[in-house]
């Protein structure tokens, strides 16, 4: 546990990557150890480690687990890890940093040590990012008592406090009475399994609702603000996040409740002009058709399972990053904010 009482989602010790196995929560708190690139790839693909910043950090350590005969081997490891998941841009951001180290380090003898230092730097920066998002986001939520979130953008998804949950931990720690309503987040239940688990561990009051209940909670005035994370934000502020985020933003707009997105600068992809260009991961049918191994969809029926949707910037009240707050985000404001 770190000083915030949020469990450490991953650690790199003695040349091994140790992950909390998020597929087993909340029933069991167990770790999975990765000792090579393939095991790290598999852990990211299967969502043992998940959430945009955590995927990036895990991939950076995954590169360190490669024990190639030459520098080209590190580049192959980076290419392989880049195929583990397509949407969260933090994965590619972290791997690009590792690639730059491979390309700029002149001596092969130093390379393993320099790569490890870079992965540790990515991890350390993520902790600072969480703290800063917490501080900036808390200014937006200071008059709020009931906050709704979707999926898990907390400590399990990052290295410390998370993004969307960071302002909540910040306020909770400073004695502000705040409670969280967590969408269960179909189909893999990251809200019910993970957000509710980590908030309970930290002593933050949390109530789980099915995704379809959010509208009536908003209509009856029970929610002061909605805050979510993001997997990739385009240059104009359109934000990809867990499937179900977009309808929540529409509902928030209709009910005049502020809708905030919290994400580090590493989640921005300024090469994409808008959110229509963000690649959306399509996951396996079985996640929808057989939750917990129980078949709930007839074999003859088709199933669609996009893991993310895109919320247009005009539905977003503000984006919070480690650098501060951008109200009513658009291309110009974001370019200035991130410059
Ligand atoms: O499929 P997941 O569980 O990796 O999806 C995660 C999310 O959508 C999170 O909200 C996002 O990565 C932000 S994590 C700080």
UniProtKB/TrEMBL annotation:
Name under which the protein is recorded: Methylthioribose-1-phosphate isomerase
Residues engaged in binding substrate: 50-52, 85, 190, 241-242
Assigned protein family: Belongs to the EIF-2B alpha/beta/delta subunits family. MtnA subfamily.
InterPro entries membership: IF-2B-related, IF-M1Pi, IF_2B-like_C, Initiation_fac_2B_a/b/d, M1Pi_N, NagB/RpiA_transferase-like
PANTHER family according to UniProt: METHYLTHIORIBOSE-1-PHOSPHATE ISOMERASE
Residues of the site described as Transition state stabilizer: 151
Enzyme class: isomerase
Function in brief: Catalyzes the interconversion of methylthioribose-1-phosphate (MTR-1-P) into methylthioribulose-1-phosphate (MTRu-1-P).
Catalytic residues of the enzyme: 231
E.C. numbers: 5.3.1.23
Pathway linked to the protein: Amino-acid biosynthesis; L-methionine biosynthesis via salvage pathway; L-methionine from S-methyl-5-thio-alpha-D-ribose 1-phosphate: step 1/6
GO molecular-function terms, A-Z: S-methyl-5-thioribose-1-phosphate isomerase activity
Keywords: Amino-acid biosynthesis, Isomerase, Methionine biosynthesis
Signal peptide start-end: none
HAMAP family in the cross-refs: Salvage_MtnA
GO terms classed as biological process: L-methionine salvage from methylthioadenosine
TM region(s), chain numbering: none
Catalytic activity: 5-(methylsulfanyl)-alpha-D-ribose 1-phosphate = 5-(methylsulfanyl)-D-ribulose 1-phosphate
């Amino acid at each position: 546990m770190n000083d915030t009482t949020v469990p450490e989602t991953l650690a790199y010790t003695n040349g091994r990557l140790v992950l909390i196995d998020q597929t087993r929560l909340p029933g069991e708190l167990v770790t999975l150890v990765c000792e090579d690139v393939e095991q790290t790839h598999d852990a990211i693909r299967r969502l043992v480690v998940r959430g945009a910043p955590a995927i990036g950090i895990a991939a950076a350590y995954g590169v360190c687990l490669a024990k190639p005969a030459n520098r080209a081997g590190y580049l192959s490891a980076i290419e392989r890890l880049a195929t583990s998941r397509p949407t969260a841009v933090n994965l590619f951001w972290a791997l690009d940093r590792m690639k730059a180290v491979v390309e700029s380090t002149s001596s092969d003898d130093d390379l393993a040590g320099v790569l490890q230092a870079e992965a540790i730097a990515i991890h350390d920066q993520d902790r600072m990012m969480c703290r800063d998002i917490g501080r900036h986001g808390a200014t937006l939520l200071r008059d709020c008592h009931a906050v709704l979130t979707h999926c898990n953008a907390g400590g399990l998804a990052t290295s410390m406090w998370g993004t969307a949950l960071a302002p909540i931990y910040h306020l909770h720690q400073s004695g502000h009475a705040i409670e969280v309503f967590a969408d269960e987040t179909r189909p893999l239940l990251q809200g019910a399994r993970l957000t509710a688990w980590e908030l309970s561990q930290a002593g933050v009051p949390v109530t789980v609702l099915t995704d379809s209940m959010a509208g009536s909670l908003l209509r009856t005035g029970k929610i002061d603000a909605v805050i979510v994370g993001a997997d990739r934000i385009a240059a104009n502020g359109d934000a990809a996040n867990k499937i179900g985020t977009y309808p929540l933003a529409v509902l928030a707009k209709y009910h005049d409740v502020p809708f905030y997105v919290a994400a580090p600068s590493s989640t921005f992809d300024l090469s994409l002009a808008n959110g229509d260009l963000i690649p959306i991961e399509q996951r396996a049918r079985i996640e929808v058709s057989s939750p917990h191994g129980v078949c709930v969809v007839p074999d003859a029926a088709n199933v669609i399972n996009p893991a993310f949707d895109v919320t247009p910037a005009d539905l977003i009240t503000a984006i919070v990053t480690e650098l501060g707050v951008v109200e009513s985000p658009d291309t110009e404001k974001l370019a200035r904010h991130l410059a």
